[in-house]
């Protein structure tokens, strides 16, 4: 099985914390099951071996990071077309999105 993990949060340069622990635990479990996993992410991911679990970065435009939740909402329009191209190339069996308020890209991309 091949899994695409969408990480669309506007939290940048995180080294520790709940989301970092959650992602590391998820990766550990998937790797133990010998499944393929790749990320499409708004930022680099601490503790992730990108040689084993590739990370495709779609960084939000700087202006979006400065306008709070409206920027997160607008990021959908930047993220979806770029992620769609990656998904068409990578052909995952499953798309998993870590929740980000106002980001609906996972629901839209699953239909492509």
What does this structure look like?
This protein has a single domain, classed as Rossmann fold (3-Layer(aba) Sandwich). The protein contains 4 helices and 4 strands. It is globular, with a radius of gyration of 13 Å. It has a 4-stranded parallel β-sheet with strand order 3-2-1-4, sandwiched between helices. The chain is 42% helix and 18% strand. The protein is α/β, with parallel strands linked by helices and 112 residues long. Helix 1 links the parallel strand 1 (2-7) and strand 2. It has helices spanning 18-32, 62-65, 68-90, 105-109, and strands at residues 2-7, 36-41, 55-57, 94-98.
How are the SSEs placed, and which strands pair?
Elements: E1 2-7, H1 18-32, E2 36-41, E3 55-57, H2 62-65, H3 68-90, E4 94-98, H4 105-109
Number of strands: 4
Shape from CA axes? globular
Unreliable spans are: none
**What share of the residues does DSSP label as strand, in percent?**
15-25%
Features:
112 residues, alpha/beta, Rossmann fold, four-stranded parallel beta sheet, 42% helix
Write a brief structural summary.
This protein is an alpha/beta fold. It is built from 4 helices and 4 strands, in the order E-H-E-E-H-H-E-H.
């Amino acid at each position: 099985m091949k899994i695409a993990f969408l990480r669309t949060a506007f939290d940048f340069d995180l080294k520790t914390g709940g989301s970092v622990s959650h992602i590391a635990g998820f990766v550990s479990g998937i790797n133990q099951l010998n499944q393929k996993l790749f990320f499409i992410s708004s930022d680099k991911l601490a503790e992730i071996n990108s040689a084993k679990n590739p990370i495709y970065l779609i960084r939000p435009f700087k202006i979006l990071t400065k306008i709070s939740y409206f920027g997160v909402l607008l990021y959908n329009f930047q993220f979806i077309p770029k992620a769609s191209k990656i998904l068409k190339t990578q052909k995952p069996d499953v798309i998993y999105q870590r929740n980000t308020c106002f980001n609906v890209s996972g629901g839209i991309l699953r239909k492509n």
